[in-house]
């Protein structure tokens, strides 16, 4: 009987380690990228921003507070989140939401817990 309790406790612990670190409604701040461009936050290319009437200035994005609107874990284990600005404005004046690879963006400093 004790073996079964031990196995159940182990399984609960193992699933607890794989729990998502982020949930809908969490607030983050966009940080400075390590590279010249944002690699793990999928901001649109400049030509798409300009086509939609926005201004492609990636430096103005730094420091914006964002909120998580959706969380999705892919089959390969990557955790993708959709984020939007907390003040209700659009990114670059043209896009409401963008996607990001959560774990990689946190590790590189592109997303910072606010």
In short:
The chain is α+β, with helices and mostly antiparallel strands. It is built from three helices and six strands, in the order H-E-E-H-E-E-E-H-E.
Structural notes for this entry:
The chain has 114 residues and is α+β, with helices and mostly antiparallel strands. It is 25% helix and 26% strand. It contains three helices and six strands, in the order αββαβββαβ. It has helices at residues 2-17, 46-51, 102-108, and strands at 27-30, 41-42, 65-73, 79-85, 97-101, 111-113. The chain has a six-stranded antiparallel beta sheet with strand order 2-5-4-3-1-6, covered by helices on one side. The longest helix is centred in the first third of the chain and has 16 residues, at 2-17. The chain is globular and about 35 Å long. Residues 14-19 have low confidence and may be disordered.
Going by helix content, strand content and strand pairing, the class is alpha+beta
- What is the terminal separation in angstroms? 46 Å
Number of helices: 3
Shape: globular
Measured on Cα atoms, how large is the radius of gyration? 18 Å
Portion of residues within helices: 25-40%
For the largest sheet, list the strands in their spatial order: 2-5-4-3-1-6
Order of helices and strands: HEEHEEEHE
Low-pLDDT stretches are: 14-19
| Biggest beta-sheet profile | 6 strands, antiparallel
DSSP, total strands:
6
Arithmetic mean pLDDT: 86
Strand content: 25-35%
């Amino acid at each position: 009987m004790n073996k079964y309790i031990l196995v159940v406790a182990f399984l609960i612990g193992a699933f607890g380690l794989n729990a998502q670190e982020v949930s809908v409604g969490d607030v983050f701040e966009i940080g400075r990228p390590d590279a010249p461009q944002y690699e793990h936050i999928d901001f649109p290319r400049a030509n798409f921003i300009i086509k939609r009437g926005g201004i492609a200035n990636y430096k103005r994005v730094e420091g914006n507070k964002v909120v998580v609107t959706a969380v999705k874990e892919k089959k390969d284990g990557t955790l993708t989140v959709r984020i939007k600005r907390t003040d209700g404005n659009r990114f670059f004046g043209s896009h409401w939401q963008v996607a990001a690879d959560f774990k990689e963006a946190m590790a590189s400093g592109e997303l910072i817990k606010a």
